[in-house]
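Researcher: Here's a chain I'd like modeled. Treat it as a single chain, no partners, no ligands.
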Amino acid sequence: MKEYKETAGQDFVKKIRPAGCILFLFLMVAVLLICFTSGKNPIPGYEAPESTEFYSAHLDQLQTELQQQVFPALEGIEGSEIANGKLVVTIDEENFAVTRAAILRYFDVSLFEFVEPSE
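Model: Modeled as a single isolated chain. C-alpha cells:
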C-alpha cells in the first residue's frame, strides 16, 4: 500500500489553522490596498499644459513652466539649465528621489537629466 504524503502547502495550512488562514488573507488584502492607493499627487490639481513632443522642441518653455509652476511646490531644487538637448535639473541630495519622482509624474524622463550639486 502506497503511503500518502502531504505537500508543503497542505502542511503549511494544517499548521496555521483557520485563524492563520484568515489572518494571512487579511494581510494580503491590506498589502494590495496599500500598493494600489499609494502615491499621492505631489502638486494637487496640476497637469502639464503641453505634450512631451512640444516640450522636446521647446526646452526653454519647459524650463519656464517648471520655474513658475512646479519648482515652487517642490523641495530641494537648486536650479535648472538647458544643456545637450535636455533640461538639467539640480536637486539636493536630501530631496533628490522624491523631487525627481514628482517631476517625472508630470513630464517624460527623456526631457531631463537630474543631477546632485557638485561640491
